[in-house]
């Protein structure tokens, strides 16, 4: 029996959600900003890895296509995860990486079109 091929879409926020909930504007600068960016990026990708490990407990990941989606690319003022870090993480894990905006619809169709073409 042939194993199923999984298409997994993992979406994360490019902006610091915890700062938004507290209605604080992310205003750090210089070294402080870089430290916050690094910590938030590590925390985000650690959580992505955790989600995949949970999926793997119940499913084989032998045949899979994983899309890593950075959402809220329209919010450059509050963006904390930079494009280079996200692309590097995705490349190291063998994921396809896209940035989208649910607010503006940017790249949403591109992600699903790519996914559908892989299925066909």
Can you walk me through this structure?
The chain is α/β, with parallel strands linked by helices and 120 residues long. The protein has one domain: 3-Layer(aba) Sandwich (Rossmann fold). Helices cover 48% and strands 18% of the residues. It contains four helices and three strands. The chain has a three-stranded parallel beta sheet, with helices on both faces. β2, α3 (83-93) and β3 (96-100) form a beta-alpha-beta unit. The chain is globular, with a radius of gyration of 16 Å.
Shape: globular
Strand line-up across the major sheet: 1-2-3
Helix/strand-derived category reads alpha/beta
Report mean pLDDT, rounded to a whole number.
84
Number of structural domains: 1
Question: What's the helix and strand layout?
Answer:
Layout: E1 6-13, H1 17-21, H2 30-58, E2 64-71, H3 83-93, E3 96-100, H4 108-119
Parallel strand pairs: 1-2, 2-3
């Amino acid at each position: 029996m042939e194993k199923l091929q999984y298409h997994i879409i993992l979406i994360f926020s490019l902006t610091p959600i915890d700062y938004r909930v507290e209605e604080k504007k992310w205003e750090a600068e210089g070294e402080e900003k870089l430290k916050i960016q690094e910590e938030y990026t590590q925390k985000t990708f650690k959580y992505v890895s955790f989600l995949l490990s949970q999926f793997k407990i119940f499913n084989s990941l032998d045949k899979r296509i994983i899309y890593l989606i950075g959402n809220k690319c329209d919010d450059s003022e509050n963006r904390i995860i930079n494009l280079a870090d996200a692309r590097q993480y995705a490349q190291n894990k063998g994921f396809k990486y896209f940035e989208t905006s649910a607010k503006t619809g940017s790249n949403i169709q591109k992600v699903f079109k790519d996914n559908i073409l892989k299925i066909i």
